[in-house]
Amino acid sequence: MLARHNRSPLRPPSAGAHPAVRGLVASAIAWGLLAASGSQAQTLRGECGTIANHYGPYDYRVFQGPKLDIVERYHFTPKVEALAGGETTALPGDIGYTLRAFPNHHRALIAMARWQDRAALQPPPRQDTTRQRRSNDGNSKKAALPMNCWFERAVVFQPNDTVARLLYARWLYKHGKKDEGRFQIDMALQHAGDNPVTHYNIGLVALEADLHDLALAQAHKAQALGNPQTALRESLQAQKRWREPAPADAAASAPAAAGTAAADAPASSPSQ
Question: What CA–CA distance (Å, rounded) separates 11 from 197?
Answer without folding.
Answer: 17
